[in-house]
Write a structure and sequence with these properties.
Length: 262
């Protein structure tokens, strides 16, 4: 059950929509100044939680570190953008109630900060003059809550295509050429030389051969290629303005004029 005693546990809780998807995280809790009951929470959405949208908690349910609301993420993100600084005006609540369709406005909600350490008490401790305030003033400041979210930055795919290129290979080849050899008549070859008629006409034929390159192609596998992912961790610097309250004091003493006169 969500009540004034569970306010601290709401801050930073994950807000889960009716479809089971995370909408964002609780940034601030707004309570009814008359009853002290939580009425609205601001939900931080978007990259680094920089956007803030209001959601009513009258039908919300707190389950551990999660706040479940009966709305989808898109519906919450489309809610009226209201920049409430410290409290919600009646007109702002009217606009929100009209969007969510969950009743009419009550007392104006007052915010409970991110780093509040004690449960909200609507009878003391608020920084407005009146009978319900105590003798202390609360100083608050904004602090950055930086997180990360995964977003798709691109897609890589493998594609195989065919290219044609020229390849030059040097191949040694041989060929036969005609060469005339002359030898004198000697006692060793005179018999062969005088065999046959003394004078005649003759022809001798020699067959010449040569080698020529022959090209053939075959397809062979050369490598396998696959896609893989590697996680690289790097540091990025995020700069954002934060506000904080400073407290001065005035003791109200009247100081005499110390100017010397002659």
């Amino acid at each position: 059950m969500i009540n004034a005693h569970t306010l601290n546990s709401l801050i930073g809780s994950d807000v889960i929509g009716s479809d089971g998807h995370k909408i964002g995280t609780v940034g601030q809790v707004y309570v009814d100044t008359e009853t002290g009951a939580p009425s609205w929470v601001s939900v931080r959405t978007g990259l680094f939680g920089m956007s803030e949208t209001f959601v009513p908690v009258d039908e919300a349910d707190q389950a551990g570190a999660e706040l479940r609301v009966p709305y989808t993420k898109d519906f919450v993100k489309d809610a009226p953008r209201i920049d409430a600084d410290g409290s919600l005006e009646h007109s702002q609540e009217d606009e929100l109630y009209a969007y969510y369709g969950n009743g009419s406005t009550g007392a104006v909600g007052t915010t409970v900060g991110h780093d509040q350490e004690a449960a909200a008490d609507t009878t003391v401790g608020y920084d407005t003059s009146g009978p319900t305030t105590d003798d202390a003033m609360t100083r608050s400041e904004e602090r950055l809550r930086v997180g990360t979210e995964k977003v798709e930055t691109g897609r890589a795919r493998l594609r195989k295509y065919v290219v044609t290129e020229n390849e030059t290979v040097t191949v040694p080849v041989t060929r036969e050429e005609v060469r005339i050899e002359r030898e004198p008549i000697t006692e060793a070859n005179v018999g062969d030389a005088t065999r046959g008629p003394d004078i005649s006409e003759e022809e001798h034929e020699v067959v010449l051969t040569e080698e020529r390159p022959v090209v053939a192609k075959e397809t062979v596998p050369v490598e396998r290629v696959r896609l893989d992912k590697a996680t690289v961790t790097e540091e990025q610097t995020v700069t954002e303005q934060v506000r904080k309250e400073e407290i001065d004091y005035d003791d109200g003493a009247i100081r005499p004029d110390r100017t010397d006169r002659t």
